[in-house]
Automatic annotation (TrEMBL):
It comes from the Bacteria. Pfam families: Abhydrolase_1 (PF00561), Abhydrolase_4 (PF08386). InterPro entries: AB_hydrolase_1 (IPR000073), AB_hydrolase_fold (IPR029058), Pept_S33_TAP-like_C (IPR013595), Serine_prot/Carboxylest_S33 (IPR051601). Keywords: Hydrolase, Signal. This is Alpha/beta hydrolase family protein. It comes from Kribbella voronezhensis. Residues 1-29 form the signal peptide. One of its GO terms (molecular function) is hydrolase activity. Residues 401-490 form the Peptidase S33 tripeptidyl aminopeptidase-like C-terminal domain. Belongs to the peptidase S33 family. Residues 97-291 form the AB hydrolase-1 domain.
Length: 497
């Protein structure tokens, strides 16, 4: 569902919006692609890197490719192969359910090959469950760049106008490198292009209407599909809702840092009451502030690679990811271990060859302008004042990684969805560290009568697999088109991880 980021690539589900003005997208459906061939399914095969457990999980999955235009604005032009996978329904088939992966950077094909626990037994019985690798990701003409150059990505904690200018120069150099190593698809990886890919998959599956479940960044895909092709939508779930509505760069950073801070505060409250927390009885806020200071001196090991030092930004990011499930017990253990650690002495080797840059699509969907270092420094001061534990949110890298790049083909704007036969079902946790509950309420407001929000009163990024109540409500909606009453809420389930 979500990207597993490296130190050189921003995480995806940590991203947001900024204001670039209104863009009107037609609500009427365009003619379908002139030629969409039926998918030729074959058993998915083991791939390099698959474990023995993976090889067992792959059994029963089927893979195919679909040729789609590099640029849907030139449908008769060059094409590339989009990777698709499915599991067929076990009984009483309703149709195909297409899963929209998160990120940007998640592989939908991997979800089908080895991650079917994401879907309930009821959904696996009633639907052919289908997903795909979005353009520019994994097996679908992935964006690739020089690994050594990716490893040189400047710190998102910019400290001067010189560093600000160097970041812009680096971003432009990286973009040219990625374009040269990826090919023409690199310039057409925005979600509006992926909307057309999704429509082509629906047609290739022989489905007159789309049944869709999008997660995190995949909710942007679903929402923009419903906007473009409302008459083609049978049912649509948007889980952990991504708001593509208008907002300034400041509002984006405030929102994302605020929701991460809220989730960290929830962890601290749990730790104060739970003896299973390794930091029970300690001042967690003070310990965390000390770790950030020590990380700034290079004295804290990377939780994932303890032989190397981490930075305040990547330390914050590692903690942020542990709030996804959330993994509160593990987070307490990790912070205790880091507090007792000694400074690492190793330095990571310089990588060679090419490396996937799964973050690239974000800069084609969002514009987060910053005029100069003075404005950027103001944002940093504001974050330190308002969200002291997350003054370096992961979304800071979303801002700095897009500085100086070309105009965005899919700039953020409020949705304009009309004429759905069944309202979209949105689902969000109250304490979501990545896509805050306020994003879900905002998108629900944009949808009006075309959307219904299901609230999960608990914690974490994603809610379908955290609450039997949420899962049952979503399943009834997808299978039988039973829309829950407005204001429906599911009680919190105490995290166990």
């Amino acid at each position: 569902m979500l990207l597993k980021p490296s130190r050189t690539i921003a995480c995806a589900a940590i991203l947001g919006v900024a204001s670039t003005g209104a863009v009107v997208v037609p609500a009427t459906a365009e003619p379908p692609p002139a030629v969409v061939r039926a998918l030729q399914w074959k058993d998915c095969l083991p791939e390099p890197g698959d474990t023995e457990e993976d090889k067992e999980l792959i059994r029963g999955s089927q893979c195919a490719t679909l040729q789609v235009p590099v640029d849907w604005n030139d449908p008769a032009g060059p094409t590339f192969a989009l990777a698709v996978a499915r599991r067929t329904a076990k009984k009483a088939r309703v149709g195909s359910l297409i899963f929209g992966p998160g990120g940007p950077g998640d592989s939908g094909v991997d979800r089908i090959r080895t991650g079917m626990s994401r879907f309930s037994a009821d959904l696996q019985n009633r639907f052919d469950i289908v997903s795909f690798d979005p353009r520019g990701i994994a097996r679908s003409n992935p964006v690739k760049c020089s690994a050594a150059l990716l490893a040189q990505r400047p710190s998102p904690i910019i400290g001067s106008q010189v560093e600000f200018d160097q970041t812009i120069a680096y971003n432009r150099k990286l973009a040219e490198d990625c374009r040269a190593n990826t090919g023409p698809v690199y310039d057409h990886i925005d979600t509006l292009q992926t909307v057309q890919d999704l429509n082509a998959i629906r047609i290739a599956l022989g489905e007159s209407q789309l049944t869709f479940h999008g997660s995190s960044y995949g909710t942007l895909l679903g929402a923009q599909y419903a906007e473009r092709y409302p008459k083609n939508v049978r049912a649509m779930v948007l889980e952990s809702v991504f708001d593509h509505g208008t907002a300034t760069t400041r509002q984006f950073l405030d929102a994302e840092a605020g929701t991460a801070q809220d989730s960290f505060d929830e962890f601290v409250k749990w730790c104060a009451s739970a003896t299973t927390c390794a930091l029970h009885g300690r001042d967690v806020h003070a310990l965390w502030a000390d770790l950030l200071t020590r990380a700034g001196r290079g004295e804290v090991p990377d939780p994932q690679r303890p032989q190397y030092p981490t930075t305040p930004f990547f330390l914050s990011y590692a903690v942020f990811r542990l709030l996804y499930a959330p993994q509160w017990v593990r987070l307490g253990d990790v912070l205790q271990q880091l507090d007792a650690s000694t400074p690492p002495t190793g330095q990571p080797p310089v990588p060679s060859g090419l490396q996937a840059n799964t973050f690239a699509p974000f800069c084609r969907d969002f514009s987060l302008p910053v005029r100069d270092y003075r404005e950027f420094a103001g944002y940093l001061k504001r974050l330190a004042r308002n969200t002291p534990d997350f003054k370096y949110p992961g979304q800071l890298l979303a801002v700095t990684s897009c500085l100086g790049l070309r105009p965005v083909p899919n700039p953020q704007r409020n949705l304009a969805v009309r004429h759905l036969t069944t309202p979209i079902l949105l689902s969000n946790a109250i304490h979501d560290p990545a896509t805050g509950y306020n994003w879900a309420t905002d998108v629900a407001r944009q949808l009006g009568r075309n959307g219904v929000l299901l609230t999960y009163q608990g914690w974490g990024h994603g809610s379908y697999n955290k609450s039997p109540c949420v899962q049952a409500t979503i399943d009834k909606y997808l299978v039988s088109l039973q829309v829950p009453p407005r204001g429906t809420s599911c009680p919190a389930v105490q995290p166990t991880g």
